[in-house]
Amino acid sequence: MPQLARIDAPASIELWRVDLTVEPTTAELAFLSTDEQARAARFVFPHDRRRFRAAHVALRRLLAARTGRAAQALEFSAGPFGKPSLAGGAPTCAFNLSHSADVALIALAQGLELGVDVEVLRVVDDALDLAVRNFSGAESAQLRSTAAAERDRAFLRCWTRKEACLKAIGSGLSIAPETFEAGLDPRPRVVRIATPSGVASVEVHSLDDADGVIGAIAWIGQPS
Known about the structure:
6 helices, alpha+beta, 33% helix
């Protein structure tokens, strides 16, 4: 059974950290849809299959608890750029999932558009080049001025903040990440992002853990 730990999050948002090192039980694997089983089977390496299955079993468990629906009965639909949501009518719940190595983050809420992203701290050899292509000019300059010992964390913090914002909007990479500033600073901020339907105001918070897990949660709307 994947291990779940709840993390502090604003207001009515539930945020969960999932340990993906544990293979789900046979009974839990039965929660997964035919499509999820097929997607898991396409992974070449066993550890990638385990991580995918554990993350999606955990998501179904949490959504089942939130909605009162059976985990195996939950159905999903996808937005224009692939963002998943619950299908099949009320009760419903907004959610978002991200995983990196053996860690996943899952966010749940009602009445919000959610985005979450996570990265396990690692060496990013081409961080400065990636920043030139994906960060604003100010963000890229700030990364260049960051001490080398802190540069990987700063890069991944900004990267996860941008990813979480784009996932909240549901745009995928149809909106270029260099066109808006999410910042390298971990403090909460409201990010203004130009979309085809107007300017979106997205609130983003960083989640930096001492054990090297770097994440961000973003949302559109007012938590109740």
